[in-house]
Amino acid sequence: MSTFLQQLINGISLGAIYSLIALGYTMVYGVLKLINFAHGDVYMVGAFMGYYLANGLGARGAQAIGQSADGLIARGLLGSGAMEPSLITALVVMLLAMAICAALGVIIERFAYRPVRKYSRLTALITAIGVSLLLENGGQVVFGADPKFFPELFKKRNIDLFGGASINSADIIVLVIAIALMIGLQLVVFRTKTGRAMRAVSFNLQSAKLMGINTDRIIMFTFALGSALAAAAGVLVAIRIPRIDPLMGILVGLKAFVAAVLGGIGNIPGAVLGGLLIGITETMVVGYLSPTYKDAVAFAILILILLFRPSGLLGSVAQEKV
Amino acid sequence: MPRYLRNLIIALIVLAVLYGLDFVFQARMISPYFIRILMLSGIAITLAVSLNLINGFTGQFSIGHAGFMAVGAYSSAYFSVTYGANLAATLGGGKLAWAICLAAATIIGAAFAGLAGLVVGVPSLRLKGDYLAIVTLGFGQIIVVFLNNIEVVGGARGYSGIPIVQSFFWIFLIAVLTIVVVYNIVHSAFGRALIAIREDELAAEAMGVNTTRYKVMAFVISSAMAGAGGVLLAHFDGYLNPKSFEFIKSFEILIMVILGGLGSIVGSVLGAILLTVLPEALRGFAEYRMVIYSLLLIILMITRPQGLLGSTAAFRGWRGRRRKKSRTEAEEITAEDTRDSASVDKATLGERQSETSLREKDSKNK
Description:
- The complex is a heterodimer of chains A (322) and B (366).
- Chain A is mostly helical and 322 residues long.
- Chain A has helices at 2-32, 39-58, 60-64, 69-75, 87-116, 121-142, 169-191, 193-203, 205-210, 215-240, 248-263, 268-289, 294-308; strands spanning 148-149, 158-160, 166-168, 243-244.
- In chain A, strands 1-4 form a two-stranded antiparallel ribbon. In chain A, strands 2-3 form a two-stranded antiparallel sheet.
- Chain A is globular and about 60 Å long.
- Chain B is an all-alpha fold and 366 residues long.
- Chain B has two domains: 31-314, ABC transporter involved in vitamin B12 uptake, BtuC (Orthogonal Bundle), CATH 1.10.3470; 326-365.
- Helix content of chain B is 77%, strand content 1%.
- At the A-B interface, helix 5, helix 6, helix 9, helix 11 and helix 13 of A face helix 5, helix 10, helix 12 and helix 14 of B.
């Protein structure tokens, strides 16, 4: 029982991160009908931005006396930094990383996707693959190919729960932040004017344009929002599992996309549900079957869902019109 | 001269040329490094042309080609390791005996890959566009995960000890066969059905084309040929690793096809050669190689989405030529049609034109 509870907690924590990334996929698909393959890599960039920001913020004092980069990293936030490691630092790092990635998302949209929007969807898909490859390989050149270790932004400790399971304080924070971001997104999409415009564009781009909505700006906003969420997921993952590398986004991105399809692509609550389901199933398979088949789980689920319910769990069936 | 006689003569000439080249290369008159790149290009041609059949001619976006390649490579390697030596010995053990073994291995690898294509294709080809892409990608990943866990073929350590049968003759025979098969398919009734599916699946269905059946057939043929490519690769270095069949490999083949142009066989051949030779030429910039590739791909998509030699207009006949005049407009309409699932009736073309001009005014105002 306690193992089950433990696996469930781990699964939910992992699932929350998948959900955050899946939200970006689902929103972009909603407005552009484009699988943004680069989204998983934006998540990777988010984690790296978090890494550099955390080290930068923490070691501002050390930098003044002119120490080597290695020293900076070693000291990190726990050294003689300008900011003490705390939840506030973690939040600041996350928000800054989100801002940077939002800008990155806008740049990608403006310079790669907008020029090909007038061509077929296939062209856009290939462009997305190109952007994804560019970020991965560019990341390997800029950040270095070997993995880096994310500094500890706050003291982690285990909290014992009833039934023998325990929960890490990092998991709690990941969950709380993820839920807060999802509520925030829900508010933006359903309570603001921009959100209403987003829903209109996602419903029908042409009509939205005719109704006077600046669709270009809305698409840009969608990319910014999705990329910011991916960056938040990147920082949160790095807090949980501190090892980051430039190729970390590929598999996670694909699984998050599967989560979006599972929930019904274009559907925001669906992405959250799908992410949680994928996360829980994956940890259960690791816990009870075999860890080696971990990466096949998401794709097996995907193939099953597409065969039996292609519109996803919460998606509505689209009628094909001629 | 009867048609079959002409074809027979051409086939004999090709065989003779290939055999002659093989003989020259055997005699070590040219550097082995050059021959190696040439052979790798041959394998790449097989893969790219076969992918073009499904992606370029049928218009079904598959990005799991490396998975089928892996099925072919591993099944044939297993055959060669377990039975190859015995079979070669009973056949006399000479060069010819190994060639027969390789032929058997190729047939087995292609058959298994084709079977895998059937298993994947039947359920997933009912899906369209993006979903198919993701399912094929997922399938490729599942194959890699399983290969990592099957101990008989070495698991994650890789499969070593495969008999090395490097043969210029054999590699290019398979490449030429692939090209001929794809060319003949495209220029047959079957191929016209495939192109019809690519152009407009709904219309093709209305015209009585059994779309699912044709798509699955094309998919199986394409997978089997990818499997043959895998067989060649397995016996080229004598070592296989599941890592080399991850989706990066699928993307690599895809880039070859797209660079050359979707729906152009010559383009695929060119793309395959270019992307095999280019990395060798760019050795000095190994670190930036993939960065350059990906930038190239994005720029290509923006400036020339049909690839270097691709021209879908060639298949569109008079309609395509007429469309060319008002190309931007036509493209815009098709782009909108595909983007918008609740597509507007095409009769509202006039409205769209006025809308386009509105948009132009709009951008001028900015």
